[in-house]
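yo

u said u wanted the structure for the complex thing, so here. seqs first:
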Amino acid sequence: MDDKLNAVLDLYYERILKERQEHADGISRPASERFMAVGPQTGQLINILARNLKAPTILELGTSFGYSTLWLAEAARRTGGRVITMELEREKVAFARDMAARAGVEEHIEYRIGDAVEMISELKDGIDFVLLDLWKNLYVPCLEALIPHLRSGAVLVADNMVIPGGEDARRYQEFVRSQPGILSVPLSVGTGLEVSRFLPG
Ligand SMILES: C[S@@+](CC[C@H](N)C(=O)[O-])C[C@H]1O[C@@H](n2cnc3c(N)ncnc32)[C@H](O)[C@@H]1O
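structre next:
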């Protein structure tokens, strides 16, 4: 991490803490205004995992305001890879773009606006790393759409397995663990992750 990127991550972190405090105080905001960001531990973990890959194509499902994108973009910059990130809300993406430019990593990120489930099927490239962090009922349909695009050795990280957790998270864990060629474990980092690797054959 360089100073420029760290400074932007710190700005996000202030916002993340504020949002958590508002939640604890019972203040509710519409989803369109909420960052719902992964937090620094998960950010660091996805950066470590993605940095271990050679020139990876990294796919992020659920950009929101672009916090996790920065951790992934830093890994892309180091490895000669790139990040494709998908988000429904155009205004969030505009903010994410500005912050990535401030952090100096914008050239490593391609933003795609729309429904990720539909856009996955249009992917032309093989995918080496995936962060699943959109609405939880979409994790299973996203994985179904993703499997034909995964390169051997691809790593998948799914967020929010424990907080908020629930039926959708359990369904995803059962589904990913039952897929041929996928090894998968839960990890108690951040709000609870499922980390999986695609190793067919
Ligand atoms: C938990 S937030 C992502 C947080 C982000 N990964 C971070 O750590 O900064 C989930 C985001 O997924 C987006 N989303 C929900 N359904 C989607 C869909 N079908 N396609 C694309 N994005 C979607 C929401 O608009 C929301 O911004």
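Residues 55 and 81 are 4 Å apart (CA to CA). Residues 3-198 form a domain with the Rossmann fold fold (CATH 3.40.50.150).
cya
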